Amino acid sequence: MGGAKITDLRTTDLFGNPVRPNKGKRGRPALEISQEDRDAVEAALVKGYSNQRICEALGISLPSLKRHFRPALQMRDQARDRLKLALFAAMARAAIEERKPAAATKLLEMLRQDELLEIEKRMSAERSTRPAPEGKKQMTAREALDADAQLEAELEQEARGGVRH
User: Fold this and answer.
1) CA distances for 134 relative to 140, 143, 144, angstroms
2) Which partner for 138 in 6, 41, 134, 162 could form a disulfide, CB atoms 3.0-4.6 Å apart?
3) Contact predicate 54/41, CB 8 Å
4) Would you state the pLDDT for residue 24?
């Protein structure tokens, strides 16, 4: 049976990922990084995905992720702040330069949210510096320690002065 060979001429799979030209042949094909891949990694970092989860989503290995996306991975902690700044800048541009009322409203909402976050941070810092209120058990334990310390001081005083009862 000399069957005909079926060749796959698709350039993308069902999910829109590129099909590598030498897939199924010997040797590992070179990883081709697209702008969509870069955007996907940055979006995953904003969402807080782990490196392993990003690898699984992109279908690449952990060493490939680290090799090709090292600068983005190093900015992991700043990714969310960078996105917020970009959105804020776009809203400010639309509100001021393009005079869009909806953008101005959204911009004011973003400013209020930032102010609320700052107030919350200040309040939590004040709460952490303020001593925690004592309950009955803590007060009793503190009073017992104070009484013990006072008794020890009196005994030491008597020992020094040679006072007997």
Assistant:
1) 10, 12, 14
2) 134
3) yes
4) 63
Q: Helix (H, G, I), strand (E, B), or coil: what is residue 12? A: strand
The model scores a pTM over 0.85: no
* Residue 78 CA to its chain's centroid (Å): 8
Structure tokens belonging to residue 25: 């042949």
Tokens of 106: 């959204």
Contact between 83 and 43 (Cβ < 8 Å): no
Q: DSSP letter for 76, please.
A: G
Tokens of 89: 């800048």
Token pair for 53 = 């989860």
- Give bridge partners of residue 18 from the DSSP assignment: 12
3-class SS shares of the chain: helix, strand, coil, % to 5: 65, 0, 35
Q: What is the mean pLDDT of the chain?
A: 84
Summarize the confidence of residues 143-151 as an average pLDDT.
91
